[in-house]
Design brief:
Bound molecules: N-(5'-phosphopyridoxyl)-D-alanine
Helix content: 25-40%
Number of domains: 2
CATH superfamily of the largest domain: D-amino Acid Aminotransferase, subunit A, domain 2
């Protein structure tokens, strides 16, 4: 039976209870991380914990645990849930105050810490030659101006993703003022005339851990890559489009709205990158 972690204890999900006065419930006043593990080994844990620290700092919350404690909690939760290929979701909210007030509770209250796991589906990048690719649609980016914070305030992302699903797509690629920002829960790459392009880090996008790894792999393997703005026209004329996230890794998008992307099949640069990604993952997680 699966187990979750809440405020110091491991328990069955049905036993986990949070107060309705929790600021996560009332104000979406919290931040989160999603960390994949393969073969039970946490993937890029330091990078995820560094981003967690940054998110907490940006919303003026103390970190309830140091890195060693986070690692121990993640590892114990993974083990209690059977190990293998699994992702850890962890969330910290500002905690439950006695009254509802937009301003932070004074004196501060104890933060709420919740963690759970989910199985990781077999990613497309694991089998580059048989991957079929997926559809995405474009939508206006209706989110706030601090998308670099991994906040649990995901209503706009949820509304956008639902529109994508209703259109038979796996993701909504978002446009702000005529430029690509990111996906509703992923970062975006295109191939433009042989160059791999992704928008630069800014307040408009989440600094994706998978994005950063793809950038690193491109550089390590001599693939031409630029971090620069992508216009709507460049997106629509791209030879390849990829989306990246910790739970999906690197997914080729073969249809954008009603049009094929490039040849309408996963492109050659995606296949090359996918091979490097899988090799990196296998080496790091002892899967070879
Ligand atoms: N989301 N951008 C947004 C808005 C995201 O929500 C995510 C990931 C990413 C990719 O980041 P990373 O490579 O670090 O996973 C980019 C997670 C998986 C989620 O909300 O479940």
């Amino acid at each position: 039976m699966s187990q979750v972690y809440l405020n110091g204890a491991f328990m069955a999900p049905e036993a986990a209870q949070v107060s309705p006065m929790d600021r996560g419930f009332l104000f979406a006043d919290g931040i989160y991380e999603v960390i994949p593990a393969y073969n039970g080994v946490l993937f890029r844990l330091d990078e995820h914990l560094e981003r967690l620290e940054r998110s907490l700092r940006e919303v003026a919350m103390d970190n309830p645990h140091d890195r060693q404690q986070w690692q121990a909690l993640c590892e114990e939760l993974i083990e209690r849930n059977g190990g293998g290929n699994i992702s850890v979701y962890l969330q910290i909210t500002r905690g439950a105050a006695l009254k509802r007030d937009h301003a932070f509770p004074e004196p501060p209250v104890t933060p709420t810490v919740f963690m759970m796991t989910s199985p990781v589906a077999v990613p497309a990048a694991d089998s580059p030659d048989s991957a079929s690719g997926s559809k995405a649609i474009t939508l206006d980016d209706i989110r706030w101006a601090r998308c670099d914070i991994k906040s649990v305030s995901l209503l706009p992302n949820s509304l956008l993703r639902q529109q994508a699903v209703a259109a038979g797509a796996i993701e909504a690629i978002l446009l702000r003022d005529g430029f690509v920002t990111e996906g509703s829960a992923s970062n975006v790459f295109i191939v433009d005339d042989g160059t791999i392009v992704t928008p630069p880090r800014s307040h408009a996008i989440l600094g994706g851990i998978t994005r950063d790894l793809v950038v690193e792999l491109c550089r390590d393997h001599g693939l031409a890559l630029e971090e620069r703005e992508i216009t709507e026209a460049q997106l629509k004329q791209a030879d390849e489009i990829w989306i990246t996230s910790s739970t999906r890794e690197v997914v080729p998008i073969i249809q954008l709205n009603d049009h094929p992307v490039g040849s309408g099949a996963p492109g050659p640069l995606w296949k090359t990158l996918a091979r490097h990604y899988v090799q990196f993952k296998r080496r790091l997680c002892g899967l070879e």
